[in-house]
């Protein structure tokens, strides 16, 4: 990651940090290409690729047809020929047409050839609700991919991680599904000169002694708000940003929960079979005799994503998180 010329100086938004990360990845390696619907001339529906086609040309920032399966399939072929494609699936719900290419081909390739080659493909997916969009534009499909061997799955929550995790993903030899919290695109912060953590390391973003909130993506900010509210009531909550969903950095999680003895997992995806269920299982296996309460989950409901006017009832908020904290501390 020697070329950091576009790295923002001073405060910036998460969206602009992603744009800078893509620009520096393109500048650092001629084999990096960007591909997706409207990523070139338009600059992407969220303007994440704004200006990149002008800067690097249409052979490296490629507008594709409206065909997600074709986008990912083409990226797989390009990776086989030595390129490092970074593709954008315009919205979370649009991952379904590409699912076969991702799960049946991309994820399996390294194992299929006995580890002799890999496919360095990064797939960017804006995910989650909170922007008033319909169901196919507001989903949280990260659990599908975290359950798929052969894929790395990560999610950023702030501008610093947006820039550096995207750079690290593109340079990874393995396929990475990179989930971007679309309602946090305008979250502001600074980008450090060097990455503070590896791609698959969790971060303790707030320390506390009473309970651990485990979260990622758009809900990190919500959990920090909940911890601030709890502090006014005399309760000290630790907040862990998982950052990587596959593999999970369980050592950081275990260290936190050993200190607090209580854990609450917060995710926007439906409750059933989600990241929270996996976290609860692993914590139960490892820290059963340490924890003073069962692992609790605050999640989206196990229903299709609701209409925009009802999404506030679906997305976990501060009140629901603090209710779970109360229940955990009551044990």
UniProtKB/TrEMBL annotation:
SUPFAM superfamilies: Thiamin diphosphate-binding fold (THDP-binding), TK C-terminal domain-like. Signal peptide: none annotated. Residues 12-187 form the Transketolase-like pyrimidine-binding domain. Its cofactor is thiamine diphosphate. The keyword Ligase does not apply. GO terms for molecular function: magnesium ion binding; oxidoreductase activity. Keywords: Oxidoreductase, Thiamine pyrophosphate. CDD domains: TPP_PYR_E1-PDHc-beta_like. It holds the Pfam family Transketolase_C. This is Alpha-ketoacid dehydrogenase subunit beta. It comes from Cutibacterium avidum. The lineage of its organism: Bacteria, Bacillati, Actinomycetota, Actinomycetes, Propionibacteriales.
């Amino acid at each position: 990651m020697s070329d950091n010329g576009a790295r923002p100086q001073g405060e910036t938004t998460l969206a602009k940090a992603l744009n800078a990360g893509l620009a520096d990845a393109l500048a650092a390696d001629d084999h990096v290409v960007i591909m997706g619907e409207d990523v070139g001339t338009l600059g992407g529906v969220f303007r994440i690729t704004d200006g990149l086609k002008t800067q690097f040309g249409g052979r490296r920032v490629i507008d594709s047809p409206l065909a997600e399966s074709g986008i990912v399939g083409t990226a797989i072929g390009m990776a086989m020929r030595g390129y490092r494609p970074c593709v954008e699936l315009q919205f979370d719900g649009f991952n379904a047409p590409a699912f076969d290419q991702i799960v049946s081909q991309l994820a399996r390739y390294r194992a299929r050839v006995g580890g002799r080659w890999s496919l360095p493909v990064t797939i960017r997916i804006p995910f989650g609700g909170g922007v008033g969009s319909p169901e196919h534009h507001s989903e949280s499909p990260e659990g599908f991919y975290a359950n798929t061997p052969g894929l790395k799955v990560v999610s950023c929550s702030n501008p610093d991680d947006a820039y550096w995790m995207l750079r690290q993903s593109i340079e990874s030899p393995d396929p990475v599904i990179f989930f971007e919290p679309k309602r946090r695109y305008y979250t502001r912060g600074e980008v450090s000169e060097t990455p503070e953590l590896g791609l698959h390391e969790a971060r303790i973003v707030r320390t506390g002694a009473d309970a651990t909130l485990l979260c990622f993506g758009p809900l990190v900010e919500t959990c920090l708000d909940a911890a601030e509210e709890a502090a006014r009531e005399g309760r000290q909550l630790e907040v862990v940003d998982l950052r990587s969903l596959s593999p999970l950095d369980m050592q950081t999680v275990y260290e936190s929960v050993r200190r607090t003895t209580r854990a609450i997992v917060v995710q926007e995806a439906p409750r059933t079979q989600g990241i929270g269920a996996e976290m609860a299982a692993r914590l139960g296996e490892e820290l059963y005799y340490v924890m003073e309460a069962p692992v609790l989950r605050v999640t989206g409901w196990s229903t299709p994503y609701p209409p925009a006017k009802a999404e506030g009832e679906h997305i976990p908020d501060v009140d629901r998180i603090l209710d779970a904290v109360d229940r955990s501390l009551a044990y």
